[in-house]
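S1.2 Input.
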Amino acid sequence: MTDGRLTIEASTDEGGSTLTLTGEVDPHTTDQLDAAVDGALAADARLALDLGGVTFIDSAGLRSLIRAQRRAEEASGSLVLRSPRPSTLRVLEITGLTDELTVEAAADTAG
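S1.3 Output.
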């Protein structure tokens, strides 16, 4: 699923569904993200969003993440945000969303 600004790849395994996002999450792409989240949650209420490929996120994108969390809760499921880039993680921290959403940061390989 892609619109040129955002590519979303869906996969499933025994741990639930994963949507891997690559590109920008902004007002031009949130409808696409919301539809992908709804589809994934319809198949499995356990959802992970892999944010490692997200190069930009704004307030519209943050609203979509909050909406995804609410939809997962309504489905008696869970949402995990995985591997956000440092810039994306910083936005989540500044807005306080790391206190509201489950975020699994990428492992520090710098050692």
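S1.4 Remarks. The beta strands are 6-13, 16-25, 46-57, 78-82, 102-104.
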